[in-house]
Amino acid sequence: MQSILAVDDSASMRQMVAFTLKGAGYNVIEAADGQEALEKARAQHVDLVLTDQNMPRMDGITLVKQLRTMHNFAGTPMLILTTESSDEMKAKGRAAGATGWLVKPFDPAKLLDVIKRVIR
Amino acid sequence: MHDSDAQDAATVQRAALECEAIAADLERLKTLIADAGDRLMTSFNVVGTLVPRPAHSEEEQRRLAGAIATAVTALQFQDMANQLTSHAQGRLTILQETLGRFCDDVDPLLATTRLQPVAQAGMGAGSIDLF
What we know:
The complex is a heterodimer.
Chain A: E1 3-7, H1 11-23, E2 27-31, H2 34-43, E3 48-51, H3 60-68, E4 78-82, H4 87-96, E5 100-103, H5 108-118
Parallel strand pairs in A: 1-2, 1-3, 3-4, 4-5
Helix pairs in contact in A: 2-3
Chain B: H1 3-50, H2 58-74, H3 77-100, H4 108-112
């Protein structure tokens, strides 16, 4: 079973993401911010990272940057799921090494389709 | 103090009080939304867990899947509403601080005697009073 690290400071968002991903057969590891995600990513195997941008302690772009420096995350798909929709922020995400940028709210079928396309 | 200065001070004082009232309303709205979101989420999870999928026809399954997908999208309102209200609160704080530089004393009675259209801070059933 493939594992997805879902990162969001909103408990309701994490719940909706987890509900969607678990229903499609993925194992979901949850984290409430970038720092917690980083700690969990160091401890277990992750096939894809789905992260919010604006979070306390560590934001999504910083998390992506940090993970990209880790050898085992060099090729891991990383998607940013956020309310931020400006081209400037998207460019920052891309420069940090994100695989994609999804604007909230997400549609379950579309989210699963994107994940299926990028996960290895 | 000139009459116009006194009028300006009164206007600023009123604006500051409006900010205070709006900030309080936003805080209450945030609490209501959070509570509604939690309750909806709990109910949603129960429905999602208990619905016996194999017992439904293909058409029913398709409709059920569509309804659940729509609910998953809609239930994300809590996060978005929370961000918006927090943003509005931040702007109000700046406005209050700015106005505060023009007037030191704000009559607290003006703020407390205002009508409050929604006083509850939860989405549970309200109380019933029989007379």
